[in-house]
Amino acid sequence: MHHRSPGFFAALRWGVYLSAGICAYAVLVQFALKPMHAREQGQEVFGFLNGLDRVLQAPGLKAGMYIGELHPAGHLPFRVWLFAVAFNALFYFSAGSLLECFWLWIRGDLAQSRVSRISRSKSDGNAEVQRLTRRGFLLCGMKLAGGGVLGGIGYSLVVEARWFEISRRTFPLPDLHPALDGLQIVHLTDIHHGPWLSRAYVRDVVETANGLKPDMFLLTGDYVHQSPAYIEPVVEELGKLRPKIGTLAVLGNHDWWEDAALFRREFGRVGIPLLDNTRCILTPERKLVPKGREGLAIAGVGDLWEDRLDYQAALADLPEHMPRLLLSHNPDVAEEQRFIRGGHRVDLMLSGHTHGGQIFIPFLGTPIIPSYYGQKYAQGLVQGPVCPVYVCRGLGMTVLPLRCGVKPEMAVIELRRA
């Protein structure tokens, strides 16, 4: 009696199952889980589920970018979302069918029946043993590769994306007043509170930062992701920062994409000054004032992509001997020609934006850095044309809700007299 092979149509059936399941999941996330997350319902669970959907929808979203319809903030018009779902239906149908065909071929069900395999093994035992061994090896390799990919995505989505670390740096500043020697700053950036991260995560960041008991908090933008609904909650949590002296901030490109005016109102409500294209002075008495002739100047510029950059307003007419920090969300400002030609003194620039690339791939490094200068401003201390730049990896994610080999970062900076 002959054993009947599952055949080609069985492979198509599994492609249909995979495609239909992922499309149904996309509908669930779009119309139920995301709105509930924005209303602060079930955020800790739904954040992971929304993130998983983003990973699964990546092929369709990438195709949407090629037709010029995907907004850089991640906003999807309904017609584009439908296009992405339709594209993914075809993509996952094809992928599922091909994988099932490959699986059946390895098992030998597409190539031959059980009886023919037995008969051939009698005539040429050694060849059949060799063939089965090769198929067994391919089957094992397929399982290991699939398990490794799924395990890596799961780790990057669930574990490392929320496993932030505290880095510590000491920077010598020429002319720093003796009374400010040892000033402790915590640099927070790129929180990206949105459908992938819960308000509880932001609260944990704030509580951890407060536990460090710094003199100041400096915030360098991108506080939300994909929806203005997250602006009020994230600013409310940041308003609970408790420095000894004060908290200062600038806006990033995502903040402009959502609602810069609302951010200004909310930061004003919680008492956090925004330094976009302006500055303040930290006096030797450790007080923040609008003007002064002694102390440390802390200046900020607008976002490179979405705002204007007024270096005169931020850095001009300061005493030559006064050291100064510059807050800029995007580190590419360090290479901006008007900044270089301006001749303004900057002792240290603090930036975020690049997230360290989010994903490190062995032998390839971090292939995607949102900077015109490639890997130069990916993370850490970088020497720019005018000044050193410290690029913090940030605490959240964009594009994909994954971090692998690039943990989120909270930077503790101590300023010393040079």
Task: Describe the structure in your own words.
By secondary structure, the chain is α/β, with parallel strands linked by helices. It has two domains: 7-159, no CATH class; 164-417, 4-Layer Sandwich (Purple Acid Phosphatase, chain A, domain 2), CATH 3.60.21. 43% of the residues lie in helices and 15% in strands. It contains eleven helices and twelve strands. The chain has helices at 7-38, 43-56, 58-66, 78-107, 114-123, 125-159, 199-211, 231-238, 253-270, 311-315, 337-342; strands at 165-173, 183-188, 216-220, 246-250, 278-282, 288-289, 296-300, 324-327, 348-351, 380-383, 388-391, 409-417. The strands form two sheets. The chain has a seven-stranded mixed sheet with strand order 6-5-7-8-9-11-10. A five-stranded mixed sheet has the order 1-12-2-3-4, with no helix packed on it. β8 (324-327), α11 and β9 form a beta-alpha-beta unit. α1 (7-38) runs antiparallel to α4 and α7 (199-211) runs parallel beside α8 (231-238). The radius of gyration is 27 Å and the shape is elongated. The relative contact order is 0.13. Mean pLDDT is 89; it is low at 1-5.
Keywords:
418 residues, alpha/beta, Purple Acid Phosphatase, chain A, domain 2, 7-stranded mixed beta sheet, 5-stranded mixed beta sheet, 15% strand, elongated
